[in-house]
Structure formats: C-alpha cells, structure tokens
Amino acid sequence: MIYKECYDMDNLQIEIYTPECPGQVIYFFGPTDELDFPYDLLDERNAACVSITGMDWNKDLTPWKAPGLKPGDPDFGGEADAFLKQLFFEIIPQAEESIELMVDVEPDWTKHRYAAGISLGGLFAVYSLFRTDLFKKAAGISASLWYDDFISFTEKYQIYQEVDQVYLLLGEKEKQSKDPRMCQVEEKTSALKDILLQKGVSCELEIVPGGHFSDAEERITKVFAAILQEI
C-alpha cells in the first residue's frame, strides 16, 4: 500500500508517496505536469518518493548564471545553491518528518537519501553531489549536462566521498537538437560518466530511444529501478 500527502511550501508543491515501511527516499525534481510514479516499485523496494515542483527551473535549478538558449529568452538565474539551502533547512526536514508521521517509522535517511530529476532537474541532482552531502545517489533523465562550463566544473571539484552511484539516461535523438549548446548533451553526458568513474564513483549511462521528454513515465521507472535498493 502507498500513502500519499500533498502540501505547499512557499511557491513549491510537495507530493509525498510512501509505503508502509520505507527504508529509503528519493527526491524527484520534475516538470509541473502530473506524472504517475512507479508506485508498485516504490512499494516493492520500501522506498518513499518526494516529488517537488513549482520551482523556477531556469533560476532555482541552474548552478550559475548563463545566457538564455535563444535570443530574447531570459538568462538562466544560477541560484541552485540557494535552492539547496532551502532543501537542507526546510524541504527535507519537513518531508521526512511527514513520512515518519504517516507510517510511524524513523529510518536513518542520511544513508538512503537519493536525488533524481528530468532536464534541468537532472542537472541539479548531479550538481548537488558536488555541493552537499545530502544525497548518496543521483540520477539524471535527459539531464541538461550541456550547461555552460558544467563539465569543467565537475573536473575541477571533488564529489562528496559518500556518493555511491550516479545513473544517467539520455534519449538517442537529443544530440540532434538544432541548438548549438543542447546538441552537445550526449558528448557532455559521456564526458561526465568518464569523470565520475575516474573519481571512483559508480556511474552508468544508458541511451534509450526518443528525444527530450519522451516516454517520461517509462524513463522514471527505469531510473528508480536502477538506484533504489532492494531492502
């Protein structure tokens, strides 16, 4: 059985799904469209899921300022560090307290807390591993790893030592983008995989059919299956 709780926090919408005996939790940064999560898998793996939407994607999920993709587009705001701070002090404590109250458990979340996201949400999930010790694993679905200077950042800075795994999933058609920055996504994603392996972090890159935002629910299921433990 999966329990559900929804609430707002400032401009954010938080949806929590949890089985009766959760031993791990995945924080998901996705689009505002309603998505069906793999509830059977969450139940089977004794995993809770905290879905966070409503953030300003171009501001809250980007690591530093960068020009917009097209002429006339607003620039990327580069306030991911501020959003990480909000996660640390507000979002995560309240979400995990809610899970514990819903099902009367008190797991050691620090050992089994993961991050995953789509597009800029995937970029944010990976970035968080270099800036905090909040998450033990991260996954990016069509993660925006083409983002200006991101790969050089990951080369320069050390990932937190406690990180166990990074899983990256990319559509085979994404590199066909006509945008000169976005078309580098497969090259940059492959480069990140190599960098993480050199840093001693287990990392897998899977290329699947389709383009950006294709088959979102199927991809979410694949990602969750890859990083959630069987406990």
- Mean pLDDT over all positions: 95
Uncertain regions spanning at least 5 consecutive residues: none
Give me the oligomer status: single chain
Q: Compute the number of helices.
A: 7
Order of helices and strands: EEEHEHHEHEHEHEH
Structural class: alpha/beta
Bin the strand percentage.
Answer: 15-25%
Question: Helix share of residues?
Answer: 25-40%
Radius of gyration: 17 Å
Salient structural properties:
7 helices, 231 residues, alpha/beta
Structural summary, described in words:
The chain has helices at 39-44, 57-60, 80-103, 120-131, 150-156, 185-198, 216-227; strands at 3-9, 12-18, 24-29, 47-53, 113-118, 137-141, 165-171, 202-208. Strand 1 (3-9) and strand 2 (12-18) form a beta hairpin. Strands 1-2-4-3-5-6-7-8 form an 8-stranded mixed beta sheet, with helices on both faces. The model has no long low-confidence stretch (mean pLDDT 95). The chain is 34% helix and 23% strand. The chain is built from 7 helices and 8 strands. The protein is globular, with a radius of gyration of 17 Å. The two termini are 16 Å apart. The chain has 231 residues and is α/β, with parallel strands linked by helices.
